[in-house]
Amino acid sequence: MKNFLIGSIGVLFICFSFKAQEKDNGTLTGNIESVFQYLNEDTVIGANQPPSKGLLNSYMNVFYTNSGFKAGMRIESYLPRIQGYPARFDGTGLGMRYIGYSNDFIDVTLGSFYEQFGSGLSLRAYEDRALGYDNLIDGARLIVRPAKGIMLKGVYGYQRLSFDQGRIVHADGIVRGVDAEFHLNETVPFLKESDLDITIGGSFVSKYQYDNVPELILPENVGVYGGRAKFMYKNFFIDGEYIQKEQDPSSDNGMIYNYGHASIFNIGYSQKGFGVILSGKSADNMSYRSDRTKDLQDVFINFLPALNKTHTYNLVATLYPYATQPLGEVAYQAELLYTIPRKTKLGGKYGTSINLNFSTTYEPIKHTSSINPSDSNGVTYVARPFDMSDSLYWRDINVNITRKLNKKFKIALSYFNIVLNNDVVKISNDAKGIINSHIGVIEASYKINRKHSIRAELQGLFVKRKENGEANDKGDWATALIEYSISPKWFFSVMNQYNYGNPDEDKRVHYPVFSCGYIKESTRFMITYGRQRAGLFCVGGVCRFVPASNGLTLSFTQSF
């Protein structure tokens, strides 16, 4: 059946592609990406050369649409996979394929698809290639718009677990879900002209997995359900979502029978030159997978958004990133953006932008006093939304000031104070307890002429020392970067990360990286050579471990 489906999709796709070429009917789009690594042995940083020496990841997406018909596929190739990707990614074959039909009323997809309900607390199937993450659903999806402002969704299928010998491998459990969203200003007559914009929604998701543990009575059907709402009034907005999870014993939670919950809210105001937003999140026992035995980042059905700013500077983004804790956390974030008007004493000729950001995460309180072990039925504690302890997981205070001094020269100054509980987040093997770091960044860019420009960064990270005066974790770091661009085709960069404050003098090493790239329209080539330190790479609170490496990386992307 599986081979029949793959073959059918391929035949249909080829037929419609030829139809498009012959009659100039339909649209064919896609993209190609390929990354090759040649790695060397480097005993100083603990980098190993793989037996094959060369590593290759390649992808090609092709999408076709014609009068409501749609079809698509992605061919993936790991020969073998580049470092940091799951070990079970191997071979060449179809990693995604679908056919479907859509119009203003209905959208139906058979095969592979990605989907999200609300903010993702109940369901989010998505791909992040930088993380090697793909939890697509294989099955069927139906979207119906029965009236203006109403959208109904239904999904049913298995999640992708891995890609082995050129074939998709599914998780054991099957995922089913429905979602409804109503834009009341389009459905309720008296709200059509109102300044108050209201959207409400709700979702229910269920997973089924056979109970194959004879010593326990495991629920084979586990559901999550909840609702959401968003209100907008002129420059103000507020939105929130709450999700409840049924009993779901798993490897993550130690096979307990607690219920789970997750909630998130955002409150904000914006106008020209000024914006402020406050966000909060509370989650407990919200590890929700289509296979109760899996761990790390495998087959999550839902997604818990990270309430911390996504940083781009090298030391800030790579040394102490925060990984979302699905078993429990209470988090808050506040951000303020303000532009001092131009042609003022403080704003200068072009204005000055200020960005203040604060985020923090704590362990939730788990009440056990009311639990009687003899009749608890596997429930070990009670946790209430936004009921947090004084046990800190993470805190980030940062400020960025950007100013254009003249038509050619711009400068940015940034400061970051990141505090991380390494006993929980486990970023480093060289530290225990709280890691307190201070990071300063100076960035300057200069436009030489219409085509040529240069940009430089100088970064320093300083870790608070232990009470005995010893350096904590790996000590202090510095990073310097120079980037030269020749618009619109060429760019060159040199970066060096230096762990000059490592308490082990033998590990006070440099991590230089040299890069060169060429861009022509939708084609991009890039060459990188240098050292990469071992550590976690995180995007949106989802992380993967990247081992140390020393070598050459070639990348190629093309879209059409």
Summary tags:
single chain, 560 residues, mainly beta, 24-stranded antiparallel β-barrel, two-stranded antiparallel ribbon, 4 helices, 30 strands, 6% helix
Q: Identify low-pLDDT runs.
A: 18-22
Average pLDDT confidence is 92
Structural class: mainly beta
Fraction of residues in β-strands: over 45%
Portion of residues within helices: under 10%
Number of DSSP strand runs: 30
* Overall body shape: globular
Radius of gyration: 26 Å
Task: Please report the number of helical segments.
Answer: 4
- Largest sheet descriptor: 24 strands, antiparallel, barrel
Measure the end-to-end span: 32 Å
Report what the structure shows.
This protein is mostly beta strands and 560 residues long. 6% of the residues lie in helices and 55% in strands. The protein has four helices and 30 strands. The strands form four sheets. It has a 24-stranded antiparallel beta barrel. Strands 6-7 form a two-stranded antiparallel sheet. Strands 8-9 form a two-stranded antiparallel sheet. The chain is globular. The two termini are 32 Å apart.
